[in-house]
Amino acid sequence: MFHWKNKKKEKHDEEQHDYALTFDNVAIPEVHTHKTHEEMTENENEQSSVNYDNLAIPEVHIRKK
Length: 65
Description:
The chain is an alpha+beta fold. It is 23% helix and 9% strand. It has a two-stranded antiparallel sheet. The longest helix has 11 residues, at 4-14. The two termini are 27 Å apart. The model has no long low-confidence stretch (mean pLDDT 65).
């Protein structure tokens, strides 16, 4: 009679996420949903320092859906 449970389950099964998580001395990791270009990844060999004395770290609140 009521098929809302089945529809909700089908919707959840269809959602598939492909995330690439990278972090390079940043306060919040970067989430990439697409492939990065090779030009962007060439600068990974350079060493960069982060001064943690003056670093502002924001509060991030992630809510459940």
